[in-house]
Q: What sequence folds into this?
């Protein structure tokens, strides 16, 4: 093609690689949010603070306690899973009967509480994991950061694990039954307490992984959660709170759109891109969105 | 504690009371969950600042300043609120319940991003520094008193206006659409129009309050218009009580009064950062606890609502008699 030189193609490929890493992060970030929406029936705004908590819990082990990154990350993920379960037990379960709107507003309060907790212990400036300097490897002429590649592989592996959980295990099938019809599942002998526990642990653990990914892909700041919630919502609406496969596609399309768009628009507007995607999606297929189906 | 401090608190309480009244209209009566309140406040604030400030000098990054009088600035803020409300309401209100919440939250984020980046309008993170305040020819004390008086007047006018609206036939329609949408549609009420009108009324009030807010802080800068403003309004509403006459005013007085008096504790800087995180933590828990002990009844699950309504009760009794 006239006017396109090799440099342009390499630049584009480079942004595609960044986009795949962003997409992998978005997948980890949105999968728990979407799962809670489908099984527990409300939008948990505090999910973003769980991600932020996971990032800072890992940072806490990694930097002040000086643990290597792998055990720090595992500890961070485990702590976030426990926090995910704890917030449900203390804050959401007692008001389950109040309906999704009150649960949503309550989760805003929970988000504030966790945010306050993080800010009490985290560094007010920017924080970084202590990592060995990455040695980028080349695919063709495109440089790939091994940490980015790690996030990508971890996200795909987690999605595969979730897929196997939902299709091959008893608890996974029970969770799907509850998400389709809570009362019918209960009357057929599904213990809601155990499916709820599994859902919150899974949501917390994936949020923790997203937090670790956030720290591996860039720097951490304490206000990071308020930006993330928008991305998470965008990806989940884009996927229509559908299957894992929808979520996978939505996460990577959004990630690619965000990182490839910086070639043409100022990168400060990068986080607005997913929101533009939501508006377009909502306007194009408003009949299929859940918001209208339940009206 | 000085008198000047109290006067400042009175002004801020009045401005927040106005915002809570606007949210009361949108949420308590029309059932619309607006999580982007701060965006409507910011639109009013920036419009007021730009309309009233002097023409920028050659070294300023922002391009507009019209030097108009204060009343024009306030009317401009109202019009900007109407336009921004229409632009954001149109896609948001095509959705229901929780999705309205997400859309408004998203629009607030987009506006924040715009205000940080569009330096030709907002001067970015530096902000618009010389916001015109009313009564500038008076001495500082008299100016603060007069401004507090003007803010209380705004809250009082808003209070009377909201009462008028919710007791009018329009208000009855708003509640009918919110409480029983299929029922209201069945008797021929315009669902979309009613939702949009109540949303726009709230948005305009919020933008006018935004003009007062920016007079109060006297600097239009994105770091003032943060999500905490939105959630403070929410907590004040839940604290004062949903669909209660004077609740929004009581909630704003208690919450803002308490927050401002906590500021009086003079603390060394390292502890003040800790105290601000603690405040965030406690504010969040307060919202959670308040919602649990006094949930807004009209939003409870379908079974709880049904018990409350006379027409459902009578239907249930008829059913029982037939059986």
A:
């Amino acid at each position: 093609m006239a006017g396109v030189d090799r440099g342009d193609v390499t630049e584009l490929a480079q942004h595609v690689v960044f986009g795949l890493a962003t997409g992998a992060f978005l997948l980890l970030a949105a999968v728990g949010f979407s799962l809670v929406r489908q099984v527990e029936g409300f939008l948990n705004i505090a999910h973003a603070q769980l991600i932020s908590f996971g990032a800072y819990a890992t940072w806490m082990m990694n930097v002040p306690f000086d643990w290597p990154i792998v055990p720090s990350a595992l500890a961070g993920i485990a702590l976030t899973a426990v926090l995910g379960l704890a917030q449900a037990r203390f804050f959401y379960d007692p008001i389950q009967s109040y309906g999704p709107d009150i649960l949503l507003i309550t989760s805003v309060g929970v988000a504030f509480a966790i945010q306050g907790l993080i800010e009490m212990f985290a560094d007010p400036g920017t924080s970084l994991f202590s990592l060995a300097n990455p040695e980028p490897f080349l695919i063709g002429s495109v440089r790939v950061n091994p940490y980015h590649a790690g996030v990508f592989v971890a996200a795909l592996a987690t999605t595969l694990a979730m897929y196997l959980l939902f299709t091959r295990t008893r608890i996974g099938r029970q969770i799907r039954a509850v998400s389709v019809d809570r009362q019918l599942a209960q009357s057929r002998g599904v213990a809601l307490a155990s499916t709820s526990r599994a859902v919150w642990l899974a949501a917390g653990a994936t949020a923790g992984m997203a937090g670790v990914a956030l720290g591996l892909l860039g720097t951490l700041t304490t206000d990071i959660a308020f930006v993330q919630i928008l991305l998470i919502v965008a990806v989940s609406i884009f996927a229509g709170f559908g299957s894992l496969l929808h979520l996978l596609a939505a996460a990577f399309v959004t990630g690619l759109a965000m990182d490839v768009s910086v070639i043409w628009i100022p990168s400060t507007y990068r986080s607005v891109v997913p929101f533009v995607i939501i508006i377009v999606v909502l306007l194009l297929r408003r009949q299929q969105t859940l918001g209208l189906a339940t009206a | 504690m000085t008198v000047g401090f109290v006067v400042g608190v009175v002004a801020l309480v009045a401005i927040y009371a106005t915002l809570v009244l606007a949210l009361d209209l949108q949420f308590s009566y029309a059932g619309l969950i607006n999580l982007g309140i701060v965006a409507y406040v910011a639109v009013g604030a920036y419009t007021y600042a730009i309309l009233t400030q002097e023409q920028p000098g050659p070294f300023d990054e922002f391009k507009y300043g019209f030097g108009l009088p204060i009343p024009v600035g306030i009317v401009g803020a109202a019009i900007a609120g109407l336009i921004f409300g229409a632009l954001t309401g149109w896609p948001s209100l095509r959705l229901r319940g929780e999705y309205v919440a997400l859309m408004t939250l998203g629009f607030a984020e987009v506006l924040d991003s715009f205000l940080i980046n569009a330096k030709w309008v907002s001067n970015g993170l530096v902000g618009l520094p010389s916001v015109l305040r009313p009564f500038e020819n008076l001495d500082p004390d008299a100016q603060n008193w007069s401004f507090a008086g003007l803010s209380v007047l705004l809250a009082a006018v808003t209070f009377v206006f909201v009462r008028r609206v919710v007791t009018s036939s329009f208000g009855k329609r708003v509640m009918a659409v919110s409480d029983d949408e299929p029922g209201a549609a069945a008797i021929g009420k315009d669902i979309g129009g009613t939702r949009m009108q109540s949303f726009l009324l709230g948005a305009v009030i919020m933008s006018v309050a935004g003009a007062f807010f920016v007079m109060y802080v006297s600097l239009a800068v994105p770091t003032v218009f943060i999500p905490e403003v939105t959630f403070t309004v929410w907590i004040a509403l839940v604290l004062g009580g949903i669909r209660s006459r004077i609740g929004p005013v009581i909630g704003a007085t208690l919450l803002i009064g308490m927050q401002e008096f906590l500021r009086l504790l003079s603390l060394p800087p390292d502890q003040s950062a800790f105290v601000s995180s603690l405040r965030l933590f406690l504010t969040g828990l307060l919202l959670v606890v308040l919602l649990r002990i006094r949930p807004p009844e009209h939003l409870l699950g379908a079974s709880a609502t049904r018990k409350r309504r006379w027409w459902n009760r009578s239907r249930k009794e008829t059913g029982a008699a037939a059986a």
